[in-house]
Amino acid sequence: MRKQIINVALVAASLTLLSSCGFDPKTPGRVYMPDMTYSNALETYAPSVIVNEDGDSVSTRKPVAGTIPRGWIPADEKIRTNEAYLMSYMSKSYFTHAADKWQEEYDKAAASLKDPLEYTEENKAAGGKLYNTHCINCHGAAGNGQGNLVVLEDGSDGPYTAVPPDYKKRLPEIKDGNIFYSVSYGKGMMGGYGYSLNVTERWQVIHYIKSLAGIDGAATGAGAPKEEEKKDGAKAEAPKADAKKKG
Ligand code: HEC
Fold it and tell me: Where are the domains of the chain?
């Protein structure tokens, strides 16, 4: 008796399964889950069944208010008329920040990107604020790489496994463009800040870290070219030659 019940159940189950197969291979047969078979996927540019808040049924939506196009440069006179500023903005389109191109792009940044901001107290103060939000945990208040993720209060090793360089040592070795590249796209164990800080904010934070390194002001370090160098390329060599004689 029990066997018979099982047999009947098996036949019923196979009939149910078979009944879903139609003879026409182009039709799905019996549809158990119509919302999966006939999906309501929206096709780009095709009208949809949903009437949206604007009262139309177009499936492509307008960008939300305030959306800016990629590579957008603010309509700010100070930015649009400043070549160095424009270069910082446009650099995004030229750098892939791919790992295998790192050195090449780092060198290119050094050669092409110049600090567009004036050394003012406002810029430094704005940079200091950003530094305390984004950088201090690793680089430390003094910029010596001993932030509280690196060294704990009791002096033992913190959870962060890399030790950032002391700005006093590292920043004089590199150019402003290098610093901008590293801050924008990251370096080694440090992530990039190109997504969270805009161009002005990145340069402001660079002013601040240069002040921590004791090299703030356009004429110090390997960074921004001096005024006379900008006007006359030939003069650029003169101070170096003097320095050599002294040394
Ligand atoms: C999570 C920890 C961490 C944070 C946060 C961090 N850094 Fe770094 N930073 C590092 C480490 C580690 C290095 C060393 C990278 C290397 O040379 O491999 C470094 C290196 C640097 C350098 C030297 C780059 C070069 O080209 O040699 C600069 C400049 C710098 N950081 C600036 C910043 C600024 C500005 C911020 C905040 C906007 C910041 N860092 C936030 C960990 C951090």
Answer: 82-225
**Per-residue pLDDT tens over the stretch 83-118:** 999 999 999 888 998 889 999 999 999 999 999 999
- Tell me which residue has tokens 């690196």: 150
Q: Domain spanning 82-225: which CATH class is it, in words? A: mainly alpha
What residues flank ligand 1, with Cβ below 6 Å?
Answer: 134-135, 137-139, 160, 162, 164-165, 170, 174, 178-179, 182-183, 187-190, 193, 205, 209
* Residue located nearest, by CA, to atom 36 of ligand 1: 135
Q: How far apart are alpha carbons 131 and 173 in whole angstroms? A: 21
Q: Which residues contact 205 (CB under 8 A, 6 or more apart)?
A: 127, 130, 131, 134, 135, 183, 193, 197
Q: Ligand 1 pocket test: which of 136, 139, 200 has the largest number of ligand atoms within 8 Å of its C-beta?
A: 139
